[in-house]
Specification:
Number of domains: 2
Number of helices: 6
CATH architecture of the largest domain: 2-Layer Sandwich
CATH topology of the largest domain: Heat Shock Protein 90
Structural class: alpha+beta
Helix content: 25-40%
Shape: flat
Length: 262
Amino acid sequence: MKIRMNQQWLWALPFSFAALVMTGCQERPAPQAEQAATTKQEKVESIPLIQAKVVPVKLSKPEACEAEGCMQYDIQTVETNVKWIDDYFIDRVKKADPIAFSTAPNQKINTAEGANPNLSQSSTYIRFVSQQYDQATFAIQTYTYSAGAAHGMYHQEFVNFDLKNKKRLALQDIVVKGAEQQVLDTLYDSNSLWLDQHSIEREKLKLSDNFYFGANGIVFVYPLYELASYAEGMTELTLPYVALNKLVKAEYLPSLPKYPSL
């Protein structure tokens, strides 16, 4: 009787061992920490590393003429590995200079005796500036010279993109709601020496929606003549990152070192 019971035990052993092996082979759910790390890695990989080059735009009218004269256009845009960014800039230049893309024939220039046809120029140059993880900055540089003018007019507009949400960032997107006046006051205080030298009072300074993320702070850019003379060029006022705590949304600020309080 004892021998028979041992035989039954030995007969059941292979099945028990097989069940144990099958249980061990089943895929076990990943630990929560591992799952979180995988999700974070997927988010990182979804942010493209911008690759860009400047390319000329094919124009229907590189020279558009009316009776008084002609305007010559030179438009160069940026070509990147992100299609929606390329589309954004093409749409911008088409809206800015629709005549250069028009298929309508040019008008005849007035060549009557004594007439002096004018030749003006307009150029646009778009370039990639920098990328900080999910934020990318580009610049649109324009120059226009009207025939007979003492000098041409130039402008540089910075365009900041949120690569994660695929949108352009306006100033209202990054500033904490209701903190605009504090930002303006802090900007004035941070640049008071230069502003005093140019006789710009506090109430005359406005926030510019033309800005970029610099090495030391957010740089606000002002057009020609607004704060300084033509010879001084476009004015740039820097608002240090260390002064922006609770004024700008945390996701748009760099990680700053924390120093022990004294």
